[in-house]
Specification:
By secondary structure, this protein is an all-alpha fold. The chain has ten helices and no strands. The two termini are 17 Å apart.
């Protein structure tokens, strides 16, 4: 078990560095890797509070870059409703089946977008109602596994935000929703046994943000998009790994 906790520290450093670069992916990557060694129900009360520490800092630092109309007009309302639904139905669904279904969806989406980037095709704009439905679905995934990022990126495909505004807007989403989940973990008592691990891994956030900030500044816009969809491919594969 000691080796498992050390490995989890490595996964957390990698995952939170990636989120500091792209604006999403920390929990789904750390959760997918960590679940190879530790129970998911033990991991979530550790990863979610760590995430609000990092995203809270980034949200405040880059608050002037946030697209508030997109954040409050489309993303947060749908994501919040979906998160509540996902948290409520978690005890009555087959979690492994749901994760594999999400993994397939992510692989299809990421593969399609990478192909479009390679062929210089332009993502066609979807009707607003479709994006709202996808956003609610992303919230449900977030309520289930604190991993709504891939579907939310799908809903935002074709947006005109540059990489800095894209990241700033996303970290505000995760700060808001993961604060809600952390409150739920406090109410249901799941967070208290994991507080020592949260404090133990907290210094890794400083290293992850430091690395991610430097890498983010040097990312070419096209390479940034490729990095996002490549990260989604990896995520989809991890979600399909039998537990």
């Amino acid at each position: 078990m000691e080796l498992a906790w050390i490995a989890l520290g490595v996964f957390i450093l990698l995952a939170y560095t990636l989120e500091a670069i792209t604006g999403f992916g920390s929990i789904v990557i750390a959760l997918s890797l960590g679940a190879l060694l530790l129970p998911i129900e033990l991991l979530l009360p550790i990863l979610v509070p760590l995430n609000i520490c990092m995203t809270g800092y980034l949200s405040w630092k880059y608050r002037k870059l946030v697209d508030r109309q997109l954040l409050f007009g489309m993303i947060l309302p749908g994501m919040a409703v979906g998160t509540v639904i996902g948290y409520a139905v978690l005890p009555i669904i087959d979690a492994q089946l749901a994760k594999r279904g999400l993994g397939i969806l992510i692989l299809l989406f990421a593969g399609r977008e990478l192909w479009r980037l390679r062929t210089a095709a332009i993502s066609s704009a979807r009707p607003l109602w479709q994006n709202r439905l996808i956003t609610v679905a992303a919230g449900i995934c977030h309520g289930l596994f604190a991993s709504g990022g891939p579907l939310l990126v799908h809903a935002l495909a074709g947006n005109t935000l540059d990489k800095s505004r894209f990241r700033a807007t996303l970290v505000c989403v995760w700060f808001s929703l993961n604060a809600l989940l952390t409150l739920a973990f406090i109410v249901d008592g799941r967070i208290y046994p994991t507080l020592p691990q949260v404090l133990f891994y907290a210094p890794l956030l400083v290293v992850g943000v430091w690395l991610g900030e430097r890498l983010h500044r040097h990312f070419n816009e096209q390479y940034f998009r490729i990095a996002i969809y490549s990260l989604l491919l990896i995520t989809g594969c991890l979600l399909l790994i039998p537990r």
